[in-house]
Amino acid sequence: MILHDLLALVAALLLLYLGTRLVRAARDDGPGAALDLFKNAMRQGLWLAIIPALAELYHYLGLQTRQGLEDGALRLLMISVFVMLPVVLIKRTASWVAFEVILAAPVAVGLLREALSSDAFGIVLSDSRYLALVVFAIIAASTLVIRGAITGWGRTGLGVLAGLAVAGAAVSLFIVTDFEVVCFWLTAFIAIGAGVALLVSDRIVHMAFWLLASLAAFASFYLLLGADFLGFTQVLVYIGGILILFLFGVMLTQRVDVPLKAAISWRVLIPGVIIGVLTTGLLVFLAGGNSWSQKPIESITRLSPNAGELAAKPTAFALGESFMSTYILPFEVVSVLLLVAMIGATYIARGKSEGDSAGAPDGEGGAA
Amino acid sequence: MMGSLAHGLDSLGGLLAQSPAVDAGNAIGLEHYLVVSAIVFGLGLLIIITRRSTIAVLMGIELLLNAAGLNFVAFAKYSAGADPLDGQIVTLFIIVIAAAEAALALAIALNIFNSINSVELDDAHSLKG
User: Fold this and answer.
1) I need a labelling partner for A140 at 20 to 30 A (CA). Which of A50, A165, A191, A295 fits?
2) A295 to chain B, minimum CA–CA distance in Å?
């Protein structure tokens, strides 16, 4: 089971990291510093991952047989919920309550499912509905954390943990043995997790780097779909070009050390969030509820090492041919568009600033 | 109404879920990609709605464009009678246009910053005439 091996590896690395930091603090600055570090980390919620990590390692080493609830993350989530309960009761701040709610939501759904699938009830909460609930839990968690980002108590770690908890529960419910499947779920987790982090992060540079993670995940999706040229173009153009452009834009226009202001009035925010969540829900329903006419399963290319004749083939040659024959007109139009955009961007960025800023003109050419 | 809702949920999850009965090698299908891109699209939409900084809003737009591009590639790979290359070409065009859009939009943001010393969307309300 690749997934559990991966989880155990992550858990071991995490424990190693946490232990090293604590030991180093204790050695350099005495036990008081280590205690401070630990308390600070617990207060920030960033080290909470230690609990699932410990539990996963404990299971992996065979110290206890797996039984009862679903293997993996759901069980670990439940442990986390119970362990965190005293902290929540002591702290009683909104952030801790929200954190506990986010942790507990998938557990509650899982327990419900466990109860319904026993013979005592006639109903079965099928895998499908369970998965749909988990998808919506991700959206709900992100919405909850937006409020945190706006009122000031939201932390990036909180959002990451929420995404991690929900996605972990979703992924580990199923025993995954296929290479492509593992890659897909990991990539989906990175894409969605980075998107949630992008949503809740309160520093613009952090946002840029979360965007990097999300774009890299999309490149990985393209590779998974057998589009090799597209995947590498995504890395070259998006990560190598657009993201650097964003970073320059950030550096030139904003003070990077100041958290973003997010105080939109509730009158704008509440309808906005409702619209966003509803749109997502609608898209998910449309995507999953339609029966799209699909190719027969045996003619779809695969990525597994043993795909044989179904292995995806390189696409660069065929793409070049298409660009020069079927798609020659759009190709030319897009090249003109790029030229226009280049000239326009240069003109707009230099435009007015020559007259009104005294000290800067030398730097303008380089920036544009 | 409820019936169709339940039907949607069932088919969504039936395709999302890798139940043990399904051959694990064929578990990832079109719907997986569609659902992921729908979620990323929603996140991008939420970013656009909740952020005030122009640059953060642009990042949300990049997420939207990526989600759309993923849909093109996934449909082209899985749909009956479709040539996988067509979807990839459309996505390549999307990437090119996104690059042009980002360059122009950031130039505009820079220009706004030069004239009103801020890139907050709420501050740029004097765009008239």
Assistant:
1) A50
2) 4
CB–CB contact A253 B89 (8 Å): no
Q: Residue A49 has what pLDDT? A: 57
Q: What is the mean pLDDT of each run of 10 residues along chain B (129 residues)?
A: 45 42 56 89 88 88 94 90 87 93 90 82 68
Cβ contact (<8 Å) for A131 and B39?
no
CB contacts, 8 Å: B38 with chain A: 280, 283-284, 286-287
Same domain (yes/no): A28, A76: no
User: Contacts of residue A126 in chain B, CB cutoff 8 Å?
Assistant: 10, 13-14
Amino acid at A2: I
The answer to the question of residue B18 being in a domain is: no
Q: What is the pLDDT of residue A197?
A: 86
Asked whether the predicted pLDDT for residue A204 surpasses 50, the reply is yes
A136 lies in the same domain as A266? yes
Helices then strands, counting H and E runs in chain A, come out as 16, 0
- pLDDT, tens digit, 9 for 90 and up, residues A22-60: 777 887 877 777 777 777 666 655 455 555 556 655 555
Tell me how far apart the alpha carbons of residues B85 and B91 are, in angstroms, rounded to a whole number: 10
What is residue A94's predicted lDDT score, i.e. its pLDDT?
62
* CA distance readout (Å), A270 to A23, A150, A275, B50, B52: 46, 12, 9, 10, 15
Q: What is the pLDDT of residues A308-319, one digit of tens each?
A: 677 777 888 999
Give the single-character DSSP code of A224.
H
Q: What is the tally of structural domains in chain B?
A: 1
Sign of CA dihedral A108, A113, A118, A122: positive
- Kindly report the length of chain B: 129
Quote the ipTM score: 0.79
Find the helix packing angle between A73-91 and A156-172, rounded to 10°: 150
Measured distance CA(A246)–CA(B57) in Å, rounded: 11
Q: SS3 of A344, please?
A: helix
What amino acid is encoded at A200 in this protein? Answer: V
Give the pLDDT band of residue A63 (cuts 50, 70, 90).
Answer: very low
pTM of the model: 0.59
- Asked if A207 and A257 count as a contact pair (C-beta separation under 8 A), the reply is no
- Cα of B91 to nearest chain A Cα, Å: 8
**Does the residue B128 lie in any domain?**
no
On whether both A140 and A173 belong to a single domain, the answer is yes
- Contact at CB, A264 and B52, closer than 8 angstroms: yes
